[in-house]
Amino acid sequence: MRPEDLLRHPLPAETPKLTLGCRLLDRLLGGGIPCNTITEIVAESGTGKTQLSLQLLLAAQLPASRGGLSASSLYLHSEFPFPFRRLHQLSLFYKADLPHDPLERIFVQPLHSADHLLDLLPRLDFLVPKLNIKLIVIDSVAALFRGEFENTPLELKRRSSMFFKISSKLRFYSHKFGLAVVLTNQVVDVMQSSDNLRIGNSAFFCSSGRRVCAALGLSWANCVNTRLFMWREEERVGEDYESFERMQTRRFIRVVFAPHLPDSSCEFVIRREGLFGWIDDNELKRK
What are the residues whose beta carbons fall under 8 Å from the beta carbon of 140, sequence distance 6 or more? Predict the structure, then answer.
């Protein structure tokens, strides 16, 4: 048994979980996104974190027998414009499984700042039971703090205080109403090379050939229960290694830390109908 296994504790057996819409990804997360906790998805732009967020908004409406929550969702977005076109495209693949238009059970609210989010959260006492909301997605939390605070000790302390206010309120409502709370976060480049650099309980990450780490630093890492990291790798395909036109993008998702899961990862692909885990047949043969 490893030391970290002594600290890991399973979720209560009765904790509902939300499917990601893919059995392979659900297996990676031990059944899906758990309710009563805060799950963070970290990735650079264009990797798929918003795609996965939209997919969760639709999956939440599925019945429990299909891994859903039979409920509506609230999508709070600070990244503009809102990706309605992609959401509508994904919703077409859920219509056959639902007795209603999937878009009718997704409620959208733009966010302009961290203070705006704090002002909005108390309204959940009224909105959640009235609209039968079981999933809240904030996309993205990093954008709320962009340019809001200066790089001074006083401002950094004020920013950390804001982190804990937001996370404590989200955790309170997740327990009060049994919500699944999903946040997306951005990455920043790691400027210095150091094997001792650690964010949360993980070293720096690599994505698109760059060393990156989750935005907002260590204070924010302590505010979430589960952190997932999505990254991209570019590789040449075929025999013509001199041609830069023969490139393909591979995408991966990893459990960085979670109280109930081991550090593990898998590859995924983005298709018209959604985001799905993927296993290379050649990799299976080598294993």
Answer: 49, 78, 79, 183, 184, 185, 186
Each residue's pLDDT, cut to its tens digit, for the chain (287 residues) gives: 454 454 555 666 678 999 999 999 999 999 999 999 999 999 999 999 999 999 999 999 999 999 999 999 999 999 888 999 999 999 999 999 999 999 999 999 999 999 999 999 999 999 999 999 999 999 999 999 877 777 788 888 888 999 999 999 999 999 999 999 999 999 999 876 545 544 444 457 899 889 999 999 989 999 999 999 999 998 877 665 555 567 789 999 999 999 999 999 999 999 999 999 987 544 434 43
Tokens for 269?
């692909």
| Residue 204 · residue 212 · CB < 8 Å | yes
Peptide bond into 81 cis (omega under 30): yes
Tokens of 13: 């057996």
d(CA 120, CA 114): 10
Q: Kind of pairing, strands 247-257 and 265-271? A: antiparallel
- Spatial separation of the C-alpha atoms in residues 77 and 71, rounded to whole Å: 19
Instruction: Give the separation between CA 180 and CA 133, rounded to whole angstroms.
Output: 10
The length of the chain in residues reads: 287
Predicted structure pTM score: 0.88
